[in-house]
Amino acid sequence: MSRTIDETIVRHIGKLSRIELTDEQVATFGRQLASILEYFDKLTELDTEGVEPMPHAVELRNVLAEDSPGVSLPTEAALANAAQRDGDFFMVPKVIGDSQ
Amino acid sequence: MTIAGNLTELTAIELRDRIASGSVSAGQAARAYLDAIAAREPALHAYNEVWADRALEQAGAIDARRAAGQDIGPLGGVPLAVKDNMCTLYGRTTCSSKILADFRAPYQATAVDKLEAAGAVILGKTNLDEFAMGSSTENSGFGPTRNPWDTGRVPGGSSGGSAAAVAARMCAGALGSDTGGSIRQPAAFCGVVGLKPTYGRISRYGLVAYGSSLDQIGPLARDVADAALLTGVISGRDPRDSTSVPRDVPDMLAGLDSPPVGLRIGLPKEFYSDALDPEINRAIHAAAELFKAAGARIVEVSLPHSRIDRDAAGKLSSHAAACYYIVAMAEASSNLARYDGVHYGHRTAEKCRDIVELYSRSRAEGFGEEVKRRIMLGTYSLSAGYYDAYYNKALKVRRLIKNDFDAALERCDVLLCPAAPTTAFKLGEKTDDPLMMYLADIYTVSVNLSGLPGLSIPAALSAAPSGAPGAGLPIGMQLIGPVFSEPTLLAVGRMYEKASGVARLVPPMAKKV
After folding, report:
1. Are B435 and A43 an interchain contact pair (Cβ–Cβ within 8 Å)?
2. Residue A79 falls within a domain, yes or no?
3. ipTM of the predicted structure?
4. CB-hemisphere CA count at 13 Å for B423?
5. With bands split at pLDDT 50, 70 and 90, how would you rate the model's confidence at A58?
């Protein structure tokens, strides 16, 4: 319970996760994440030498579909929930170049 | 007793039969349920949206079909509810998240399509823990759902809205989704039947993804027969979900009254440590005795990697829970990357310097605390330097867990165990300690990791808590079988209903008409 994650690591995870964090959240999450990760560390007690990882519950392989055209989502439906659009495009702030 | 009171007390099958025979109209059934919702929703908040006009319209269409001599389908006129993480063309699909508060899905989940094609009337969308992440429905962005047995307690989660609505007679049955116990645990807390089908049995198309290798849609119902009916309707391969399994769907109702001859029931010894609430322990063992008296053989089996203990500090300890949360959070961190404030969902109103700031601020404003924690932990366990220690390690433990189940199920037909370590807990009891909340799923997570079906049914009612008026709280038990053994699980569940008389439990609040 006493363990905590370094503030810079919490901020780094926040950045990788694309979630802005307040200073208060950095402190709270640091404590909570540390206690949860400590719980996860239990798994080190188990010997998994030579065990094949199991990423999926049903191990289906090579599920193929006919290469035939079907009905796709109409453009208007695809854009209907967009925060901002310009014609047939989603609008976002400027991505490249001078960000000022 | 009014007509409305009688109608909401019928099971889905009984109601369907009355509508089919013409003794009750679909319109009357829909109105009876809308009245029940109007009466109890303010105390429970089971629904995010109630579709009153639309439900009456659908019911009218069923009545017109019947009047014209047409088939009304296996769910003709039966009012049902759908967890609000399944896309519907009508109304909103919010996942109880502020980030999707105004989201209107451009397509509909296959499971909902199948309900409607079978003649069901959809009453609305039920509350959940945000993005199905939680075990109490307190993580909803729109306020918690309360347990109809005691409104000071949680209904369980994440399908808490569906479980509460079924228990409180605010729908005849409902769909939920189960990633680590989200159907079975709330079913146990609310005294209803919940089935987590085999992974791949039911299409996940249109189910908003949380942990894709674990998620499965399933029914919450008043009794086992209703759960069988709903499971049959929504099952089957779907070309729009490549993980749905190409396998014929058996008639789930046909063998309901014929449990396997020479039935062997396995008790996993690791599930019965002193970590389990003594009253639940007694109830499950009493159930085992009842099965034995009905001719079943009880065998002790072992699931070493799903062992549940208490550590030195008295905290529940389980490798399976650690494994589950690592896998689920890793998958969640990837699945929830789609909420970017661009294609759909909340976008920050603040002016952003660049696209990364737009993403990060929109997500910070839209997601609740638990969702943020899980995305961050998942991101951490997948990040360079930690992938092998956490994610890959968890995938290896996952195989060990599944191998244990395969070996145990060689020695018996079904496993019998608790559905949850406690009965429904109080609101606020675990909200300050995320880890404590995770441990509410300790008896259910292994089943998702292994892809197996699990059926949660009421085992008994607890003694009334001191000072509380009337009844006690429901105690749930869980039956687990090999892949695609749903008909067996349902038949064994039905066997218990008949032997024990514990079925169709009515919370005191729903007895008042």
Report:
1. no
2. no
3. 0.93
4. 25
5. confident
